[in-house]
Amino acid sequence: MLIAPADTDLSSWDVLANIQMLLHYHFMQNAYLAGTLVAVAAGVIGYFMVLRDQSFAGHSLANVGFAGATGAALLGIAPIVGLFLAGLLAAVGMQSLNIAARQNRQSDIAVGAVFTASLALGFLFIHLSTAEYAANVYNVLFGNVLGISDADVRVIAWSTLLLMSVFFFIARPLFFASIDPDVAAAHGVPVRVLSFGYLVLLALEVAVAVQVVGVLLIFALLVTPAAIAQYVTTRPAVSILIAIALALLFTWVGLAVGYVTPYPVGFFITTFAFATYVLVRVGRLVRGGTINWGHRHVGGNV
Amino acid sequence: MHELSLSTLSTPVPATLSPVIQVEDAAIDLGGRTIWQKVRLAVQPGEFLAILGPNGAGKSTLLKAILGLLPLSAGTITVLGQPARRGNAAIGYVPQRRHFEADMRIRGRSIVRLGLDGGNWGLPLPFLQPHKAREASMRVQGAIDLVGAAAYADRPIGELSGGEQQRLLIAQALVTRPRILALDEPLDSLDLRNQQGVAGVIRQISRETGAAVLLVAHDVNPILPAVDRVVYVAHGQVAVGTPQEVITTETLSRLYNTPIEVLRASDGRIVVVGQAEEGID
């Protein structure tokens, strides 16, 4: 990822020229295409992840993918298949654990235990595989968005299309089941089927998103934009659109900055997401402080 | 188990109306235990029923059976002429008290809207059907106005008080203009002022919409002025009748099979004394 093309001067404000330069190379076209597709789906899935209080589960699901990707490489299968299968397995595990152990703390511990075990398994797989693949472990952990092939883009495009179609179909009942499972069930919503289906969709998104941000940085695209969006608005549809917009913004700017500097794209995507999150939270803290101050003032007058 | 035919007490409701809910010799088993059996009950349109009884007696179970959420082990339940089934839009349901987490940043209006079409597949596209979208938001506004929640309907629901959340959840149940409203302990975990406020809203709804109300309650007193009949669930049996008929020393002692004393204060409040478990007050 340490690339330094000759014409990396983005200092001029000619937007069109800058975009032309960014998209001059084929690998950058692929990077932007894949990044855009992944970001759109991540915004939608992330919104529900935050709503359902499953950000830890989602992060763990991605970590389980690490074992899947390294195991697939060991067996000579495409990493994306291994990622998805491992995610699927994790989804099955989480679903049955969540139903069996009704206490939140218990299920958190169970999820943590599973994801540590799978990291260890991935570690073993790397040790067993060839030195050549072992060098690629960074790509699984942190993503390799500048090395995405045309075939990868096709897989990502089809997956995103599938994800978005399914979400268009299930978004409303899933939203209902996420915030109020009892009433949703009374309205005839298949709450448990949706809960499992959501984890499967998450596994698919994780499998494709790993190429852009890797299993360790995936939080930046899935959770952070959605968490910021829910701070900004209380309207669900608007919130999803903001989550998508933010995921796109972080990805696009991250790619551009990664292109003109010698530093990795994943670092910038994650850092921009984190910085925005901190800004929004601090902003709310300051505003909340002012409101409290006002109350005290009113109280003093009485 | 005693075989008392308490469910045949006379009722003040005219027999000419066809009942909205008909329960015939129904029984429910959960985990091998019979919760209640031989339940007979006919709910008339617009009637206000309080379901009372000690904890764990199966009050909520009765409501869930009518909603079609639990299968019967015997008998039948008919709702508006059809067998009870889940997802029946003719019943508005508010389950037992749940608090939304304080960090739930969804506005109340969106929660109310779920009652209208939250269970539908696919997404509505407002720009394709502006007329339909306008009608939907008007119905949501109507339900919000009915419970008096207009002032805070656009605030995040997690930041609202228990009473405010409860009003919005009742609005959610009302938005389909149901003919039956099923409320499971809607006054539980509210402070006294909010209890009276929410009870007032429910009474007003039952008058204005003409919906039959089935309300599970711990304490009958806040809703007593509105109650037509009580359904008293205890020890696997059910007694149905007016509060004067059912909440008596004699009937409750028979139902519990232990001496129970019912006292009536001068302001009409009812106090039940001598219950082993928690009762209606």
Short synopsis of the structure:
The complex is a heterodimer of chains A (302) and B (281). Chain A has 302 residues and is an all-alpha fold.
| Global structural class of chain A | mainly alpha
**Estimated radius of gyration of chain A:** 21 Å
**Fraction in helix of chain B:** 25-40%
Q: Name the beta content range of chain A.
A: under 5%
Assembly state: heterodimer
Which segments of chain A are poorly predicted (pLDDT under 50) over 5 or more consecutive residues? 291-302
The appropriate CATH architecture of the domain at 15-217 in chain A is Orthogonal Bundle
Please tell me about this protein's structure:
The complex is a heterodimer of chains A (302) and B (281). Chain A has 14 helices and no strands. Chain A is mainly alpha-helical and 302 residues long. Chain A has a domain at 15-217: ABC transporter involved in vitamin B12 uptake, BtuC (Orthogonal Bundle). In chain A, helix 2 (26-51) packs antiparallel against helix 13 (236-260) and helix 10 (191-217) crosses helix 14 (265-301). Helices cover 28% and strands 24% of the residues of chain B. Chain B has helices at 59-66, 108-117, 130-146, 162-174, 192-209, 243-246, 249-256; strands at residues 21-30, 33-43, 48-52, 74-79, 82-83, 91-94, 180-184, 212-216, 229-234, 237-241, 261-264, 270-273. Chain B has a 6-stranded mixed β-sheet, with helices on both faces. In chain B, strands 2-1-4-5 form a 4-stranded antiparallel β-sheet, with helices on one face. In chain B, strand 11 (261-264) and strand 12 (270-273) form a beta hairpin. In chain B, helix 2 (108-117) packs parallel to helix 4 (162-174), helix 3 (130-146) packs across helix 4 (162-174) and helix 4 runs parallel beside helix 5.
